[in-house]
From TrEMBL:
ATP binds at K246. Pfam families: PK_Tyr_Ser-Thr (PF07714), TGF_beta_GS (PF08515). This is receptor protein serine/threonine kinase. Its cofactor is Mg(2+); Mn(2+). Residues 1-21 form the signal peptide. Belongs to the protein kinase superfamily. TKL Ser/Thr protein kinase family. TGFB receptor subfamily. It comes from Clupea harengus. Its EC number is 2.7.11.30. PROSITE patterns: GS, PROTEIN_KINASE_ATP, PROTEIN_KINASE_DOM, PROTEIN_KINASE_ST. The chain crosses the membrane at residues 136-161. It catalyses: L-threonyl-[receptor-protein] + ATP = O-phospho-L-threonyl-[receptor-protein] + ADP + H(+); L-seryl-[receptor-protein] + ATP = O-phospho-L-seryl-[receptor-protein] + ADP + H(+).
């Protein structure tokens, strides 16, 4: 036991010495590299206009979409990415040098290779540069550190060899004794641990960019759990854990690009937003597949869940509050060094909401999202030609009176759809032993696949709203939720509640319910 402790102490000391040496080297080299910045052309990138400043300039082409910008030193590894189908990246280290870079044509790859080589040499030279004023210290300290490490390694080896023989003898004598079996300390790393470690920094919510580009090879598809106009959803396994793989069809390529862009550029990690892991492109049967990898929720979408499950009033409130909380997080702009812009969903419906094991929900499918930053004064509607679901469209969308240049207009359409989702949940809530079958909004007014004109007549001309069962008004929770629904369905968009007001109302209702239950327990 004493020898083992001595060995651990020696190894810990050696490790500490290595860290100090490495830090000393990094400090001296960083002084030179910190001032070696270049001005670059910036195109098709959020957060910059025409130019940006960084360590190197880059030019990328992803499936025909070109962008230019700059990388900081910690992002330089992306310049060394191996060649991936439909992905090209070139880097250079001179002012505005990426303005003239273009995607090479086969077989003329030599230009990109030579630029990459020159950049690597420049990078290596900067890292190895030692400030002259520190050279004297380095000449003395480095040899001493090396000698100390070698001496400690020899001591550790001697201690290990001396302790090995008695340890082997003891193990050999007791190898059949079941009481001597020991469980290794700690547990094997799980998917959740690794995911949290990967995602503790950076601007995106998923894994680092280059790690994402290897995900398709690491995932095994198990079963198809859903199909739609966008493509398919599969349950896959990654590192022993289930993940959801959304495989987009080629005609919905813009949704994949948009959703990937939103997840990789903003901090969206929230309990009520579907957890993003990675996006990747892979080839199958000589065709390109677009993958979006997210957390897997075995209960499926809210639409599927309500088909076969009913709720009590408390469960209904929990679900409604979680959807409202997720929408508040989307609609809110966070101002910080790693903040997020405000996002409007534009296609909120029960099929795009997933149910978690704890009875809460999380919002998914951000392919139609609109990004707005008040601090940077920009509104990004995207280029996706797909429109939302007609059954959930707000009056101003159906009559085409929506102000497309005002971000608040998109948030107000989300509130209209939120009211319809709350209505779907309340229908499946048991009150006084009564519960209704699941039906989609306006099921009794329009066909199963309504046209744009069908919805416009019902919502805009006739101004109909989904009917509310009388039983809802006999329960305090359901009557309050019914009132919230009606205030989400005002014909005038500015008159509707905000997502924050909906959440505050439902939160207060949840707190009052908890207090009533606690008081009832005390009385009993």
């Amino acid at each position: 036991m004493g020898r083992a402790t001595t060995l651990k102490a020696l190894l810990s000391t050696a490790w500490l010495v290595c860290v100090l040496a490495d830090q000393l080297t990094d400090d001296s080299s960083t002084k030179e590299g910190a001032n070696d910045r270049v001005e670059c052309v910036c195109e098709n990138r959020h957060g910059c206009t025409d130019t940006c400043s960084g360590y190197v300039c880059f030019f990328t082409v992803v499936r025909g979409f070109a962008s230019r910008g700059c990388f900081e030193l910690q992002q330089y590894e992306q310049c060394r990415a191996r060649r991936i189908p439909d992905l090209h990246i070139s880097c250079c280290a001179e002012h505005f040098c990426n303005g003239n870079l273009t995607e090479p044509k086969e077989p003329g790859q030599a230009l990109a290779v030579s630029q990459h080589t020159l950049l690597s040499q420049s990078y290596t030279k900067n890292l190895l540069y030692v400030n002259p004023e520190d050279s004297a210290i380095m000449l003395v300290a480095v040899p001493l550190l090396i000698l100390l490490i070698v001496a400690m390694a020899v001591c550790a080896l001697v201690v290990w060899l001396r302790s090995r023989r008695p340890h082997y003898r003891l193990t050999h004598m007791e190898d059949h004794d079941a009481t001597m079996l020991k469980v290794p300390a700690g547990a094997d790393p799980t998917y959740g641990d690794i995911f949290d470690e990967f995602c503790t920094s950076g601007s995106g919510t998923g894994l680092p960019y280059l790690v994402q580009r290897t995900m398709a090879r690491q995932i095994s598809l198990v079963e198809c759990v859903g199909k739609g106009r966008y493509g398919e959803v599969w349950r896959g396994t990654w590192m022993g854990e289930s993940v959801a793989v959304k495989i987009f069809s080629s005609r919905d390529e813009q949704s994949w690009f948009r959703e990937t862009e939103i997840y990789n550029t903003v901090q969206l990690r929230h309990d009520n937003i579907l957890g993003f892991i990675a996006s990747d492109m892979t080839s199958k049967n000589s065709s390109t597949q677009l993958w979006l990898i997210t957390h897997f929720h075995e209960l499926g979408s809210l639409y599927d869940f309500l088909q076969y499950s009913s709720l009590d009033p408390e469960g209904c409130l929990r679900m409604c509050l979680s959807v409202a909380s997720g929408l508040v997080h989307l609609h809110t702009e966070i101002l910080s060094t790693q903040g997020k812009p405000a996002i409007a969903h534009r296609d909120l419906k029960s099929r795009n909401i997933l149910v978690r094991r704890n009875g809460q929900c999380c919002i998914a499918d951000l392919g139609l999202g609109v990004i707005h930053s008040q601090s940077n004064d920009y509104l990004d509607v995207g280029t996706n030609p797909r429109v939302g679901t007609k059954r959930y469209m707000a009056p101003e969308v159906l009559d085409e009176s929506i102000r497309v240049d005002v971000f608040e207009s998109y948030k107000q359409t989300d509130i209209w759809a939120l009211g319809l989702v709350l209505w779907e949940i309340s229908r499946r809530t048991v009150v006084n032993g009564i519960v209704e079958d699941y039906r989609p909004p306006f099921f009794d007014m329009v066909p199963s696949d309504p046209s744009f004109e069908d919805m416009r007549k019902v919502v805009c001309v006739d101004q109909h709203r989904p009917s509310l069962h009388n039983r809802l008004y006999s329960h305090p929770i359901l009557s309050s939720i019914a009132k919230v629904m009606k205030e989400c369905w005002f014909q005038s968009p500015p008159a509707r509640l905000t997502a924050l007001r909906v959440r505050k109302t439902l939160s207060k209702l949840d707190q009052d319910t908890d207090q009533s239950i606690d008081k009832l327990k005390q009385d009993v």
